[in-house]
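As a representative case, we now present a protein record of this kind.
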Amino acid sequence: MNSLQVIDIFFPHIDGVVNTVDNYARFLNGAEGDYCCVFAPENREPGAEIYRGYDVFRAKAARIVGGYLCPLPGMTKSLKTVLKGRRFDVIHAHSPFTMGHFAYRCAKKNGALFICTFHSKYYDDFLRVTRSKLISKLLTKYILRLYNKADEVWAVSPGTALTLRGYGFKGEIKIMPNGTDMLSGDLSGAKERAAAEFGISSGGKTLIFVGSQIWHKNLKLVIDTLALLKGKGYRLISVGDGADWEEIKEYAASAGVRESVTFTGKVSDRELLAGLYLNADLLFFPSEYDNAPLVLREASSLELPSMLLRGSNSADCLTGGVDCFLCPPDAPGCSEAIESAFADREKLRSVGKKAKESVCIPWSEVAANAAARYKKLLDGKKRR
């Protein structure tokens, strides 16, 4: 079986969707003689062409207003050559923009199965950039066209599926959870290495936030909560970079907690990232924006408990007080919930252990499930 994974942004950028596509390709390529490759926009930044054991074909792209990339897949001769030279059974789109629509046209032209995974809260993204509800609704209708054309639509969690339903999608949605790569591998020394790299001292009460440093990840709430905990031995490790990184650091300084926060910047080294998790006592991730964050699975695989926003999509696969902790959407409530969690260290550890049992699936199993689903749908397509 030959499959093509299509995405509108890829390495060296790192986020949950990139990690998903990377792991699909890594485990689907070569499994039982299968071939899987990735089609993504070009990127000339360092680290763009890291070899991960599968082929990556790059589409031409143009910079538009705001520095965003606009992929131009129809103008890419190399992919047309690949499509002519190899018949793809499955073309799987992980973004609903120009790359996704191109993927659909390729699938239709070549008689391939077309799968579309819904990953993100696109309406929120549109509203943040355009500041117009009308334009955001029109753009959301545009992306729905692609999902309506798919042979099957996947979502990474029940909450993510509900978001897509809220956009007006009425078709069938298959829940296909994501996995984590931190369930295997030798991590001995990772904690000490990360501590030395970023100057993290032992002891105390350490929170960690992992993700893009952008305001709509609720980082203002994270900083405001830390400010209310000031003087009580709490500190924060904030991992990642993003458009608002400098502003967030300035806000931490204005809130009087800059000395209590370690801003690491982007961490591409997976062992080093694991070491940062191991230096923390609690993942504090009060994001309303994220659907099924991979950081939650990463933390849980290392038995690190999470504090999540009550009612958020991030928390929809967990139970408060059992395999996660839940907090309200305000700083006083978050600080109270965090202090309550730290008051019982044994409970803190047990919640982390239970989280590992609840949400951690190795990527190899996730990819095997995807391959099995592909084959089942292909068999049904042939019978029809």
Summary: The chain has two domains: 2-179+363-383, 190-359. The mean pLDDT is 92. The two ends are 19 Å apart (CA to CA).
